[in-house]
């Protein structure tokens, strides 16, 4: 089983380009008025509408701090601040804004993860 998270956007082309070009997602399915992207096993879609959903957080996680630091350099113009450690959640992360103002998080876990299937 799997799932997809969808968001409404007033500018589908711009937000899809952001996730493809800057985040590295690829188009999984192109539908009439909706684009579903894939980044690893994470699937998320943007549908052109008259209103934008700018709530929620899209979190992308990586294997190590070095990758998060590389991404921070790429997203520094949109980052809310440099990467930091969250002792509470045992992660290293930073937040940025996508073109719609939605929160995007780039993180790595500081402990081993359970096996993924």
Structure description:
20% of the residues lie in helices and 40% in strands. The protein is α/β, with parallel strands linked by helices. The chain has one domain (5-109): 2,3-Dihydroxybiphenyl 1,2-Dioxygenase, domain 1, CATH 3.10.180.10. The protein has a 4-stranded mixed sheet, covered by helices on one side. The protein has a 4-stranded mixed sheet with strand order 5-8-7-6, with helices on one face. It is globular and about 40 Å long. The mean pLDDT is 94.
Keywords:
single chain; 117 residues; alpha/beta; 2,3-Dihydroxybiphenyl 1,2-Dioxygenase, domain 1; four-stranded mixed beta sheet; 2 helices; 8 strands
Distance between the termini: 10 Å
User: How much is the radius of gyration in Å?
Assistant: 15 Å
Structural class: alpha/beta
- Anisotropy-based shape: globular
Structure annotation, total helices: 2
SS strand fraction: 35-45%
> How many domains in all?
1
CATH level 1 class label: Alpha Beta
User: By CATH's scheme, which homologous superfamily applies?
Assistant: 2,3-Dihydroxybiphenyl 1,2-Dioxygenase, domain 1
Name of the CATH architecture: Roll
The strand count comes to 8
The unreliable regions are: none
Q: What's the average pLDDT?
A: 94
Characterize the main sheet.
Answer: 4 strands, mixed
Read across the widest sheet, the strand sequence of neighbours is: 1-4-3-2
- Helicity range: 10-25%
The helix/strand order is EHEEEEHEEE
CATH fold assignment? 2,3-Dihydroxybiphenyl 1,2-Dioxygenase, domain 1
């Amino acid at each position: 089983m799997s799932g997809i998270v969808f968001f409404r956007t007033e500018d589908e082309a711009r937000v899809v380009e952001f996730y493809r070009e800057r985040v590295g997602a690829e188009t999984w399915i192109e539908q009439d008025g909706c684009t579903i992207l894939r980044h690893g096993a994470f699937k998320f879609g943007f549908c052109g509408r008259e209103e934008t959903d700018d709530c929620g957080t899209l979190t992308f996680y990586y294997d190590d701090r070095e990758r998060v630091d590389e991404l921070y350099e790429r997203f520094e113009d949109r980052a809310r601040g440099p990467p930091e450690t969250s002792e509470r959640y045992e992660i290293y992360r930073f937040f940025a804004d996508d073109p719609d103002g939605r929160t995007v998080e780039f993180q790595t876990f500081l402990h081993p993860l359970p096996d993924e299937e």
